[in-house]
Amino acid sequence: MSTTATPTNTTGTWEIDPSHSQVGFTARHAMVTKVRGSFNDFEGTVVVNDDDLASTQITVIIQAKSIDTRNEQRDGHLRSNDFLAMDEFPEITFVSTSVTPTDASGLDVTGDLTIKGITNTVRIPFSFEGTATDPFGNARAGFEGAVTINRKDYGVTWNAALETGGVLVSEKITLEFDISAIKQA
């Protein structure tokens, strides 16, 4: 297996490998702890031109029903109209509008994030974790990134006041991306 830490020879189409990737999130609960979760059903494509990295196109589609916080009752509530309204809005999408290198291993990916039919522009800083050829001959690339959003900006406004002050669920949600992508032939 060979690896490299700098992006070279990445021109082409890359498919996100969901079995070796994670799309997660963190929210503060009851103002005292963090609850972590993930979306278990997602897909994505990255189209790269090494000669014009800024023209890179990234598309990610997440199935809202795949939300998983390891608590079935909470997951059901998150799927409901109080939060993601998955029956009406089954997909969460991200489509890049620009990719800007920040240093030898960093990229700022700006794009349109759509949750519950509401689209806002976000900038996600990513670190390039390297490329490798796996034992099956697949060229792989790894990226890690995170961004904090305000869920109210996407119409996710449900909450409950606490007797001691504060609220049950934080407005700020951190989205986390650990991505392994496979270069297509």
What are the main properties of this structure?
single chain; 185 residues; mainly beta; Lipocalin; 12 strands; 56% strand; elongated
Number of domains: 1
Q: Could you give the distance between the termini?
A: 19 Å
**Taking Cα atoms only, what radius of gyration do you get, to the nearest Å?**
18 Å
Task: From the 3D structure, determine the CATH topology.
Answer: Lipocalin
User: Can you say what the CATH homologous superfamily is?
Assistant: Lipid/polyisoprenoid-binding, YceI-like
Poorly predicted runs: 1-6
How would you describe the overall organization of this protein?
- With 185 residues, the protein is mainly beta.
- It has a single domain, classed as Lipocalin (Beta Barrel).
- Helices cover 4% and strands 56% of the residues.
- The chain contains one helix and twelve strands.
- The longest helix has 8 residues.
Task: Please sum up the structure shown.
The relative contact order is 0.23. The chain has one helix at 72-79; strands spanning 3-4, 12-16, 22-29, 33-39, 42-48, 57-63, 67-68, 91-103, 106-115, 118-133, 139-150, 169-183. β10 and β11 form a beta hairpin.
Please describe the topology of this protein.
Blueprint: E1 3-4, E2 12-16, E3 22-29, E4 33-39, E5 42-48, E6 57-63, E7 67-68, H1 72-79, E8 91-103, E9 106-115, E10 118-133, E11 139-150, E12 169-183
Antiparallel strand pairs: 1-10, 2-5, 2-12, 3-4, 3-12, 4-7, 5-6, 6-8, 8-9, 9-10, 10-11, 11-12
Domain Lipid/polyisoprenoid-binding YceI-like: 13-182
Protein name: Polyisoprenoid-binding protein
Pfam family, one: YceI
